[in-house]
Amino acid sequence: MADPLLKVENLQAWYGESHILHGVGIEVREGEVVTLLGRNGAGKTTTLRSIMGLVGRRSGSVRFEGREMIDARSDRIARAGIALCPEERGIFASLDVTENLLLPPVVRPGGMDLEAIYTLFPNLKERARSPGTKLSGGEQQMLAIARILRTGARLLMLDEPTEGLAPVIVQQIGRTIREIKQRGFTVLLVEQNFRFAQTVADRHYVMEHGRVVDAVSNAELASSMDRLHEYLGV
User: Fold this and answer.
1) Which of 118, 166, 187, 210 has the fewest CB atoms below 10 angstroms from its CB?
2) Strand partners, 6
3) Looking at the domain assignment, is residue 109 inside a domain?
4) Is-contact 141 171, C-beta < 8 A?
5) What's the CATH number where 124 sits?
6) Within 13 Å, how many C-alpha atoms sit on residue 33's CB side?
7) d(CA 191, CA 178)
8) Where does residue 28 rank: exposed (0-12), middle (13-18), buried (19+ CB within 10 A)?
C-alpha cells in the first residue's frame, strides 16, 4: 500500500502554557475524505492548526508527501500543498466574490480555474460581483472552500464547514465534498455533525481531550454505533 499523503505521529501542541494536544496520530491517504469527530474542546481544530503550523508550539512528526513539516513555517506548509479552510471562513468583506477567489496564490499545478469553480458553485457565479458582506452564510462557506480549490493544494483541511447552516445548504456542502473527492482532492474534515460526516467520509478518527481515542471506517459504522454514541452523544 502506498505511503499516506499525510502522516501525523505523536503530535503535541501548546497555546502559551496550555498543553492542548497529547500525542495525536492520524493518517490520510491520497483521494480519501477523513473526518476528525469529537465534542467541543476535543482538540479537532487545534489538530488542523497544528498541521498548518499555526499554534504557539508543536512537536512530534507531521509528514506530507514523505517530507517532515514539523519545523516548517506555515507559509512553507501552504506552498507544499496543504490548505486550511477555517471555521470563521476568512472572507474579505471589501472584496467581491471573484476578487476573493483570485486572492490566494496558486502554489502548484492541479487547481481548478474560475470556470470550473463557477460550474461547481453556480451560486457564486451569480454573485460574482457581490461583496463578501452581502453573501449568506452558506455562500460564504462555499466561497471559502472554492478559494482553496484554486491554489492547487493536494490536501484540503475543512474546519466545521456545516456549522450554523440550514439543512439544504448542508446537503449542498456534502455534494461539493463528494465532487471534489471525485476530482482527486484529498480532504481532512473537522465535523461535529456525525450524520453529515458519515455521508462524505471514508474513515473517521474520534478525539477526546486532545487525543485520538478511536478510529472507524465507514464499513464499520454499523457495528461501532454504540461506541460512537458514547463518545459523541449521537
Assistant:
1) 166
2) 28, 64
3) yes
4) no
5) 3.40.50.300
6) 23
7) 15
8) buried
Report the 10 Å Cβ neighbour count for 90.
Answer: 14
Q: Confirm if 215 and 38 have CB atoms less than 8 A apart.
A: no
Spatial separation of the C-alpha atoms in residues 77 and 116, rounded to whole Å: 25
Q: pLDDT of 5-64, one tens digit each?
A: 999 999 999 998 899 999 999 999 999 999 999 988 899 999 999 999 999 899 999 999
187 three-class SS: strand
Asked whether the predicted pLDDT for residue 212 surpasses 90, the reply is yes
| Residue in this structure with the C-alpha cell 482553496, named with its chain if needed | 148
CA–CA distances in Å: residue 190 to residues 49, 71, 159, 178 = 11, 23, 5, 15
* Beta pairing partners, 206: 37, 214
222 membership: H or E segment, kind and range = helix 221-232
pLDDT at 132: 85
Q: How many CA atoms lie within 13 A of 215 on its CB side?
A: 10
- Residue 81 included in any domain: yes
Query: Domain limits at 166?
Result: 6-232
Are residues 179 and 120 in contact, defined by beta-carbon separation less than 8 angstroms? yes
How many structural domains are present in the chain?
1
The C-alpha atoms of residue 220 and residue 234 are separated, in whole angstroms, by 16
Is residue 62 a part of any domain in this protein?
yes
Which residue in this structure is represented by grid cell 473527492? Answer: 181
* Residue 1 included in any domain: no
